[in-house]
Amino acid sequence: MFELYGVGAVALCIALVEVAKKVGSPSRFSPILALIIGVVLGVCAYGMTAQGVVLGLAAGASAVGVYSGTKNVVLKEEE
Question: Which residue ranges run through the membrane (predicted)?
Answer without folding.
Answer: 29-46
